[in-house]
Structures are given as structure tokens and as C-alpha cells.
Design a protein that fits this description.
- The relative contact order is 0.14.
- A seven-stranded parallel beta sheet has the order 3-2-1-4-5-6-7, sandwiched between helices.
- It is an alpha/beta fold.
- Helix 4 packs parallel to helix 5 and helix 5 runs parallel beside helix 6 (159-178).
- Helix content is 45%, strand content 15%.
- The protein has one domain: NAD(P)-binding Rossmann-like Domain (Rossmann fold), CATH 3.40.50.
- The structure holds NADP nicotinamide-adenine-dinucleotide phosphate.
- NADP nicotinamide-adenine-dinucleotide phosphate (NAP) is lined by residues 18, 20-24, 42-44, 47, 68-70, 95-98, 118, 145, 147, 190, 192-193, 195-198.
């Protein structure tokens, strides 16, 4: 089998959470280009419909599942529905990651719980259910989108790194518990990407200059530059890669 065949996702069923736009959409589009049927998730039906249409117009296969990541029961129901409809689930990319940049002391307990639920507990719950389906199949790819924030931290940005470090722990727990069943678990840790959500920051001259100084490639990442990592980890080309965090940051996190 050629390396290109091993990158094919033909016949695979994938879920990418938070994929109506941004990095999630780019990863969903890439998986569909490689042949997977992709389920896109998010809170806004219209955004998801547009994303599904864009994939379909490019010849891909996609559908939408509308739910808020913070709603754990809704997420579990969506995974059960996907299994019922398709009879399998091969790839889960836990991509949702909300961020609320403000001082630690300004968060009350309910706000902390909501962020942790959205960014971490949702992924824990979806991964558990998906991993059991994958275990029964003898094949699966669990992928978590973390961040270079987590190993690194910023003042005034307290809860997000806590959740992202938790995701790294989740990836490792799954890797050791499910590896024996042909199910791998890895993470992608992005650096600075000029997504729609970051548009104002990415166009800010100070932030352009910051990227030039801090990122060895001297620029922000383009959203589609996340896709190579996602396709690789989702495919059979990564069959012996397990428990790894693949940083995609233009070298930012290794620069002194
Ligand atoms: N962009 C970067 O520079 C960067 C850097 C490091 C790490 N990351 C990580 O990469 C991931 C994607 O980042 P991004 O910048 O592409 O994200 P984004 O643009 O902020 O959001 C992408 C998608 O997530 C969905 N979403 C947001 N909250 C949700 C929720 N509670 N439940 C369900 N869906 C939700 C949104 O749809 P709806 O609004 O319709 O729900 C949207 O389609 C995140 O985990 C982020 O932490 C990004």
C-alpha cells in the first residue's frame, strides 16, 4: 500500500466539533477531501448548514449535528445518533475551545465550571463514548485540539490553559487505555492562527509585529495550515503514533 493510500479516509466516519468555521471547518473539509463522511458540530444551525453545503459543493460528504458543547447529554445523544445512522465512528476531533481573557479573580464558580465544561468535560464525555465504539470496531482515531497555551500561560487568561492542560491529560489517558484496541489518541497544539475569531487581532499592526518577532516563520498561521496535522493523525499513516502532542505553531514555542 502506498503512503498516499494510507492517507486515504475513504469509508471513514468522522466527527469534528466546533466546525462551522475556523480551524474546525478547515479540518472537516480536509477529512472530507480525503474521503471521510464528516459530521460537523456547533451551536448555530445556519453556520453549520453553510459549512456542510461548502463541503458538498466540493464533492465531499458531510452533515450537521447542532449542539452546545457545554450540554453533555446533547453531545452523548449526537454520538449515539451518528453510530445508529452510520454503524460506525472512526475519527473524533474534539476541537471546541472557548476562551475568556480576563483576570482570574473576576471569574465566579459558575463561569469557571461553564468554561471547563465547554473546553474539557465535553471532550472527556464525547471521547469516552467514541472510544467504546472504536474499541468494538478495532480501529479509531481520537484527536484533541489543545494549544501552545497550557504549557505556556498568559496573565489575564487563567481558565483556558487549565482546560487545555486537562485535554493533554485526556489524550494520554485514552492513548494508554485504548491503544491495545487499535484506537490511537493524539493532540494538535496550534499556535497563532488568523481565524475569523482572531481577525481583529491578526490585522492589528502590533500583533503582526509580535508574530514577526516571536514566530520563527515571522507570521500568523493560515487556518488551512492546520489540516496536514489533522489528516496525518486521522489516517493510517499515523498508525503507530499514540499519545503525542503535535505542535503546529511555526516554531513559536521553541524560540528562546
Ligand atoms: N485560532 C487560534 O489561533 C488557536 C490557537 C490555539 C488553539 N486554538 C484552538 O483551536 C480550536 C479552534 O479554534 P478556532 O479559533 O478555529 O475557534 P473559533 O473560531 O472560536 O470557533 C470555531 C467553532 O466552534 C464553535 N463553537 C464555539 N463554542 C461552541 C460550543 N460551546 N459548542 C459547540 N460549538 C462551539 C463555533 O460555532 P458556533 O458559534 O456556531 O457554536 C465555531 O464554528 C479551539 O480549541 C482553540 O482553543 C486556536
Amino acid at each position: 500500500m502506498s503512503i498516499f493510500d494510507r492517507l486515504s479516509l475513504a469509508g471513514r466516519v468522522a466527527v469534528v466539533t466546533g466546525s462551522g468555521r475556523g480551524l474546525g471547518f478547515e479540518m472537516a473539509r480536509a477529512l472530507s477531501e480525503a474521503g471521510a463522511h464528516v459530521v460537523l458540530t456547533g451551536r448555530t444551525a445556519e453556520t453549520l448548514d453553510r459549512a456542510v453545503d461548502a463541503i458538498a459543493q466540493a464533492g465531499g460528504k458531510a452533515e450537521a449535528a447542532t449542539f452546545d458543547a457545554a450540554d453533555i447529554d446533547a453531545g452523548r445523544a449526537a454520538i449515539a445518533d451518528i453510530r445508529k445512522a452510520h454503524g460506525r465512528l472512526d475519527i473524533l476531533i474534539n476541537n471546541v475551545g472557548a476562551r475568556d481573557r480576563r483576570p482570574f479573580a473576576s471569574f465566579d464558580d459558575a463561569q469557571i465550571l461553564n468554561l471547563i465544561q465547554t473546553d474539557l468535560l465535553s471532550a472527556v464525555s464525547l471521547s469516552r463514548d467514541a472510544a467504546e465504539i472504536m474499541k468494538a470496531q478495532g480501529h479509531g482515531r481520537l484527536i484533541a485540539v489543545t494549544s501552545i497555551i497550557g504549557n505556556l500561560a498568559l496573565p489575564g487568561d487563567a481558565i483556558y490553559p487549565i482546560a487545555k492542560q486537562g485535554m493533554t491529560g485526556l489524550v494520554r489517558s485514552l492513548a494508554v487505555e485504548y491503544g491495545a484496541y487499535g484506537v490511537t489518541s493524539n493532540a494538535i497544539a496550534p499556535g497563532m492562527f488568523a481565524t475569523e475569531t482572531n481577525a481583529a487581532l491578526a490585522e492589528n499592526p502590533d500583533m503582526i509585529s509580535f508574530a514577526r518577532q516571536r514566530v520563527p516563520l515571522e507570521r500568523w498561521g493560515r487556518p488551512d495550515e492546520i489540516t496536514g496535522a489533522a489528516l496525518f493523525l486521522a489516517s493510517d499513516a499515523a498508525s503507530f503514533v499514540n499519545g503525542h502532542v503535535l505542535t503546529v505553531d511555526g516554531g513559536m514555542s521553541v524560540r528562546m
